[in-house]
Amino acid sequence: MTEKTWAARLRSFFRELFGSRYARHLEAEIVRQRMEYEARIRELIAEKLELLKKVHEFEVAMLPQVWRRDVSIPRTTRDWEKLARETGPSHWKQALEAHNEIEFAEDKKEEK
């Protein structure tokens, strides 16, 4: 009973034939994908280097001029906490507090 039938031999032949072809196709696809990936990585690295070069040129050429110009301008700073205390709570905060009070009152009623 170790003999295969004609149909079983035919099926195994086609599995071997198309299985190996499909494996070669998948290997070629993996190689193609890897090459595309590496090319894209090289493009991104080149783009990054170009942007870094532009930033460096800006820092070397422009920042000293801007810094000298800004030194003469007096800086004013705002006290944001003081400004917040003066304006009071915002409309949104008032609505949120009202909502929370209603929720708290409903929770107390449910507890009783």
How much of the residues is beta strand, in percent?
under 5%
CA(first)-CA(last) distance: 83 Å
Which descriptor suits the 3D outline?
flat
Give the number of DSSP strands: 0
Helix vs. strand class: mainly alpha
Characterize the largest beta sheet: strand count, sense, and whether it forms a barrel. none
Helicity level, as a percent range? over 70%
Q: What number of structural domains do the residues give?
A: 2
Low-confidence stretches: none
N-to-C SSE string, H for helix and E for strand: HHHH
CA radius of gyration is: 36 Å
Average residue-wise pLDDT: 80
The total count of helices amounts to 4
List keywords for this structure.
112 residues, flat, mainly alpha, 4 helices, 2 domains
Walk me through this protein's architecture:
It is a single chain. This protein is mainly alpha-helical and 112 residues long. The chain folds into two domains: 1-76; 79-112. It is 84% helix and 0% strand. The model has no long low-confidence stretch (mean pLDDT 80).
